[in-house]
Amino acid sequence: MALSSRLGPFLRAQFCSSGSIGFRMSSWSPSLLNNMNSRHLGANDPMPSINPEVYTVFNMRFCPYAQRTVLFLLAKQIPFENINIDLKNKPGWFLAINPLGKVPTLVKGSTVIYESLICDDFLEEEHPETKRLLGDSPVERAMDKLLVERSKFFYGPLHGLLKVQTQEDLEKVKSQVQGGLQILGNELRSRGTSFFGGFSPGMVDYSIWPWFERFNGFAQLSNMDLKDSTLKEWMNRMFEDEAVRYYRIEDKDHAEFWRGFAQGQQNYDIMFEKENPTKL
């Protein structure tokens, strides 16, 4: 399908930076040109054809780091294609593209970039004509990047929930997670805006969101709640964002994946199997 046919303009209200309500024409439509839930390719799969005219994201559907870059591409309306990779059985041709074998890996022509935040910085600088997701001033950009670093106090311990062996260890990790959430909640309250990026999601929002999308899935495994009301309201607003809504995985599917991950039996193709039950 031609990209032009995928873009249907519609009218929506938007809060302007002045706080007033304005109207503008918005043409948001998924800029992904193929299927995000395709089968994950492994060592025995041949290399698929790659279109040198658009970005290709080498991805793993349940990877929170790769999700950062996918959300950037979707939010900025940059056309791209998606190739999912089996990270336990990586194809040799993928390792030839990125010897570290990490996702996301962003490719266009001879350009190969990896590490999610580096990919996102590149997209912001390479495409100034698209929606800006970083702050206007060097200070704002630096403070936002520092906040993303501090968000590790939240999502770092979150993964620890998969490894705890005792109730005492579980409570310790849950306390660390709540401490990280408090840092983020306090920062959002101090900014006094709907999102960390202002009146619409920005770099910080999209960079930390993947772990909030997974929070309820982790909570199902550990009986943990999100206590911060400011972050709860922010999550509800994020769920209404077009890019977030388009790429979202449901809580039960996240829980299924991470339950398998904790046992060393992760199924990368949960979403593919849901879409293609006759191919099992």
TrEMBL record:
Pfam families: GST_N_2 (PF13409). Residues 137-261 form the GST C-terminal domain. One of its GO terms (cellular component) is cytoplasm. Residues 53-131 form the GST N-terminal domain. Transmembrane segments: none annotated. GO terms for biological process: glutathione metabolic process. It comes from the Eukaryota. InterPro entries: Glutathione-S-Trfase_C-like (IPR010987), Glutathione-S-Trfase_C_sf (IPR036282), Glutathione_S-Trfase (IPR040079), Glutathione_S-Trfase_N (IPR004045), GST_omega (IPR005442), GST_Omega/HSP26 (IPR050983), Thioredoxin-like_sf (IPR036249). Keywords: Oxidoreductase. GO terms for molecular function: glutathione dehydrogenase (ascorbate) activity; glutathione transferase activity. Belongs to the GST superfamily. Omega family. This is Glutathione transferase. It comes from Tigriopus californicus. The lineage of its organism: Eukaryota, Metazoa, Ecdysozoa, Arthropoda, Crustacea.
